[in-house]
Amino acid sequence: MANINFVSENKEVVAADGANLRQKALENGIDLYKFYGKMMNCGGYGQCGTCIVAITEGMENLSPRTPVEERKLKKKPANYRLACQALVNGPVSVQTKP
């Protein structure tokens, strides 16, 4: 089991190992999207890049960046991830809408 701490929302969520970060956020009422992303998101396929989050702790507990993330996030800091592409395998702290 993995604990996901959403820093801005002050909310902690328990997830099974290998859970998708975007899916767990949405299941628990965490808003990942800014205005544009709410209307234009791709539904979790990694194509739009609107579900960007910053990992403040526990980066080692996420799956490695996918090739899609490498392309979408190449000009972003190393701790930025696409929530739809990140699988959680341990405790992690997440900053939404960085």
Automatic annotation (TrEMBL):
GO molecular function, one term: electron transfer activity
Domain 2Fe-2S ferredoxin-type: 2-98
Keyword check for Repeat: no
Family annotation (Pfam families): Fer2
Gene Ontology process terms (BP): P450-containing electron transport chain
Transmembrane segments: none
Protein keywords: 2Fe-2S, Iron, Iron-sulfur, Metal-binding
Obligatory cofactor(s): [2Fe-2S] cluster
Coiled coil: none
Domain of life of the source: Bacteria
UniProt record similarity statement: Belongs to the adrenodoxin/putidaredoxin family.
PANTHER family reported in the protein's UniProt record: FERREDOXIN-2, MITOCHONDRIAL, FERREDOXIN/ADRENODOXIN
Listed name of the protein: (2Fe-2S)-binding protein
